[in-house]
Amino acid sequence: MNIHEYQAKALLRSYGAPVSKGHVVTKAEEAKAIAADIDGPIWVVKAQIHAGGRGKGHFIEEEAGEKGGVRLTKSVGEAAEEAKKMLGRTLVTHQTGPAGKQVGRVYIEEGAGIDRELYLALLVDRQTSRVAFVCSTEGGMDIEEVAAKTPDRILSFSVDPVTGYQGYHGRRIAFALGLTGNQIKQCVRLMGQLYKLFTEKDCELLEINPLIVTDQGDLRCLDAKMSFDSNALYRQEDILALRDETEEDPKELQASKYDLNYIALDGEIGCMVNGAGLAMATMDIIKLYGAEPANFLDVGGGATKEKVTEAFKIITSDPNVKGILVNIFGGIMRCDVIAEGVVAAVKEVGLKVPLVVRLEGTNVEKGKAIINGSGLDVIAADDLSDAAQKIVKAVKG
Ligand code: GDP
Ligand code: MN
């Protein structure tokens, strides 16, 4: 789960990390009063969306001369005006895709004077199964580009969970970032605060880009991106309360309400599968035969007819779906339950695209009988390979 920059900064502040003073604006009429509570001489106005690259992004409805989703303004009035203009508009960045994201919240922050822009992140390193620090002197820009072109400018190391964060970790980062004097002390303290936050709140990623050295010579977190392990949210009530459902894919949101493991993708073939491994294999084989999956969906082991119906509805609500492949290997999941769910869903929402069904395993004959007796226009398949070829053929013509 992702949160907004202003929420991440409030969390950082609560752990003692240095951030600028700022307030969030959600209603245009409140912009002026909110901006007036912040001191200048620079007021930074920042669109809050769950995507990076806002500074270099553009609004779809942008007027000539306007610039991006991060703006430096010189008065309370100007800040309020910029905030009002951003609200309700659609911001496109290299991370949002061409459709962009609508801005419902704007953050107004006291501007910082910048001496240097650095990069810092904490993440879960899957290879070592540990929390890792990543830092670079090349802050403010795309870290992916730095990694590709000048990988020697990135330092990364992981922390032993038994000993946890130690001062030498912070000093190692400070020296790699070229910090001096009091900045080294600030860095050691800040890295400890970030590590504590990361582990206590079950973070997946905590990225500060840029971490700056101010013109006063102090460290400050100028941007913040945080995401959390969704499987840990049951024990992170305060984090769960920060969830902004308007930022999520409506299909994924619906799926999460029914406890379905669903991830929207860009392809044309909708998949309904039981078991994560079979779902992955199904996606692979669709690609092998020349098409792309529109989603990953694992309906799980003990899915009910209602859950299957909901899953089918979510798949058909995606306008990119040009065909559907139901691939069930009935073990705990029974084929007749899947068949009932599919038939019920089609009766409710109709079927406008080809549907290939491959059933195998527990109650397979019962399942097939339900599908065959339903009068639905279903293409039956015998095995995974046969099913994939049939749906790709049906879609590609
Ligand atoms: P992003 O584009 O979504 O990553 O948004 P950031 O918060 O990283 O802001 C983009 C850029 O705007 C930063 O790299 C800075 O160069 C600039 N910026 C943001 N806040 C301030 C500020 O308080 N003062 C100054 N001078 N520049 C800022
Ligand atoms: Mn940034």
Automatic annotation (TrEMBL):
GO cellular component: cytosol; succinate-CoA ligase complex
Listed SUPFAM superfamilies: Glutathione synthetase ATP-binding domain-like, Succinyl-CoA synthetase domains
Annotated GO biological process: succinyl-CoA metabolic process; tricarboxylic acid cycle
Catalytic reactions of this protein: succinate + ATP + CoA = succinyl-CoA + ADP + phosphate; GTP + succinate + CoA = succinyl-CoA + GDP + phosphate; (S)-malate + ATP + CoA = (S)-malyl-CoA + ADP + phosphate
Note accompanying the cofactor annotation: Binds 1 Mg(2+) ion per subunit.
MF terms in GO: ATP binding; magnesium ion binding; malate-CoA ligase activity; succinate-CoA ligase (ADP-forming) activity; succinate-CoA ligase (GDP-forming) activity
Pathway(s): One-carbon metabolism; formaldehyde assimilation via serine pathway; Carbohydrate metabolism; tricarboxylic acid cycle; succinate from succinyl-CoA (ligase route): step 1/1
Residues binding ATP: 46, 53-55, 109, 112, 117
EC number: 6.2.1.5
Subunit record text: Heterotetramer of two alpha and two beta subunits.
Protein's job: Succinyl-CoA synthetase functions in the citric acid cycle (TCA), coupling the hydrolysis of succinyl-CoA to the synthesis of either ATP or GTP and thus represents the only step of substrate-level phosphorylation in the TCA. The beta subunit provides nucleotide specificity of the enzyme and binds the substrate succinate, while the binding sites for coenzyme A and phosphate are found in the alpha subunit.
Name assigned to this protein: Succinate--CoA ligase [ADP-forming] subunit beta
UniProt source species: Rhodovulum visakhapatnamense
Gene name tied to this protein: sucC
